[in-house]
Amino acid sequence: MVDVSGHAAGGVDPEPIGGPGVVGERPAAWVVLVADPITGETDAFGPFDRDSARADAERRRAEHAAEGLHEVLVVTVPLTPPED
User: Residue 57, Cβ neighbours under 10 Å: how many?
Assistant: First the structure.
């Protein structure tokens, strides 16, 4: 599994980042983004902490694969609040 930072699940954490929605060196919340290129539908689930987002994404990938929907993209995305 790869999150949008480009790092594999269970791999090395991304470099420290800052800005809105960041606690310490990581985003405070993550969402799971699901996109189906065939239907054009997208959906987002969360917010989760990073580990819960990864687990939810893995579960959704397995469900889609079991239904033969291998083209559906499931990724974890850091949730950043809108800027004022």
Answer: 26
pLDDT of 25-60, one tens digit each? 668 899 999 999 999 999 999 999 999 999 999 999
Three-class SS state of 29: strand
**Nearest Cα to Cα of residue 44 among 55, 31, 27, 62:** 31
* pLDDT band of 14, cuts 50, 70, 90: very low
| Alpha carbons within 13 A on the beta-carbon side of 18 | 0
Residue 64 is inside which H or E element, if any?
helix 50-66
